[in-house]
């Protein structure tokens, strides 16, 4: 069973996100938190001088390619593995209609990945992986506006050492080497899905997933904020409280709130009848963003993206992630999920088309991936054009 989840709503009466690994699965992690090699202050390098020049652009800039990963672990996914592999391949093939895609696969599963992904997707076996969550494990690419490109690693530690990650903690550095760009480890532990950037100095994140002793013990919020800004080339963080200890990620931001542009954001809203912790979290994120300002002092314009009715979606899995907001922006298109609540699916497509004029809106049935608590944004990582 895969227990990775992003921020997302709920099933009736349940936690509604990917739950923690079973006790037996935790044993596979092995190392104690204090000794994990990827921990901040152990593998972390001092920020480069270029950190003030380079910045992570917003996702709708032109991409050179998309990076993905092909899972093959039955110890993580169990009987769900083949369905999840098929969903990963569907996402890769769809993105490949708009920009190049490279999928990292282990040598033993590379042939299957090539068969499922088809000829339009490049599969490489030189960068081994533990799982499919490239948003969290991959490098965060930065540009300097003058043709420069580098990459930052966020010291991935298995979402607080909750899942085995010996291969995944090296993915960021290995991809940077493959691309041939300078690479630096950030001075904090985090995941790409935990931090949203507007490309103009403003970040947003939940405290629950970053200001957390399972990632950054002994660091204050101010120290963590400074490290985030140095890594992303930003100067301001909009913080949400988030939700702790209910899913393996401790409530990532990227399936609830996203930046559309500097000074513009969206929040996926729950139904008015939803009262669980994630519904309350989403409403708080909307309220905070609506009164927030950007790094430059401009007010934030916030759009609503209505989430589905969990009683009307196809999946009955209690940990299912039905987040339209967990979409991926690629060259000329938005790749988003659809979940079987026909009215909500149609409305979400119309909202995304309005918010991203001129882009094709692709909606995919990724129900197998969704049972693992993840979505399309979770399994993709963009490499921007220099």
TrEMBL record:
GO terms for molecular function: agmatine deiminase activity; protein-arginine deiminase activity. Keywords: Hydrolase. PROSITE patterns: TAT. InterPro entries: Peptidyl-Arg-deiminase_porph (IPR007466), TAT_signal (IPR006311). It holds the Pfam family PAD_porph. GO terms for biological process: putrescine biosynthetic process. The keyword S-adenosyl-L-methionine does not apply. Gene3D superfamilies: L-arginine/glycine Amidinotransferase, Chain A (3.75.10.10). It comes from the Bacteria. SUPFAM superfamilies: Pentein (SSF55909). This is Peptide ABC transporter permease. It comes from Streptomyces showdoensis. The lineage of its organism: Bacteria, Bacillati, Actinomycetota, Actinomycetes, Kitasatosporales.
